[in-house]
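Data availability (excerpt). All sequences and predicted token strings are deposited with the supplementary files. A representative entry, Oxidoreductase molybdopterin binding, is shown inline so that the format can be inspected without opening the archive.
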Amino acid sequence: MLGKFFNKPDPELSDRVPPGQYLTKGFPVLTYGETPQINPEEWQFKVWGMATPKTFTWSDFMSLPHHEFTKDFHCVTRWSKLDVQWTGIKVSDFMKLVELDPKATHVLQHCYGGYTTNLDLEDFWREDNFFAFELFGEPLPSEHGGPMRLVVPHLYAWKSSKWINGLEFLATDQPGFWERNGYHRRGDPWTEERYGGF
Ligand SMILES: Nc1nc2c(c(=O)[nH]1)N[C@H]1C(S)=C(S)[C@@H](COP(=O)(O)O)O[C@H]1N2
Ligand SMILES: [Mo]
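Structure token line:
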């Protein structure tokens, strides 16, 4: 894996690269299964579970404030990409539209294609988490999760759902796709929460 595409970090960048990770300059695509093609006009986003059920459209999302984000991206398969530039909508702005049951403690992300992944609410509802619809100034390509994905920069990238289409709020922690297959319930790259499951 080392060599042309994966580099040991320069010393000045090493404090940005979590243990056991290597830098890549490209942006690898990591998808389990098919890449869905979704037209923004048909895109729908649902909230349910321990929250008042609601369906949102693309224009509901687009009417929220847009922000630029530059964030590092860490995949548990050991590649990291620094300074990825996104445009997106803050989770905290979206959550103003959600009527949450006070008993909610966790959220399961749902996607076109059936992928799921869990987060506790503290890891989900953070100022630097966002729904991304542009990558390096262009509409988010479908292989990277377009038209819309979640980005949770402080955790391994399997927690950043591509083609996200819903949030199921929960009063308990429930495993998503990779967590059922042995990945850690939380996935902090700095403490190498790679495996562990539930
Ligand atoms: N819906 C969906 N989201 C997903 C995945 C997936 O297979 N399906 N893979 C995850 C993993 S393991 C990683 S590392 C990142 C990769 O994002 P990228 O393909 O844009 O690099 O997306 C995450 N989100
Ligand atoms: Mo990954």
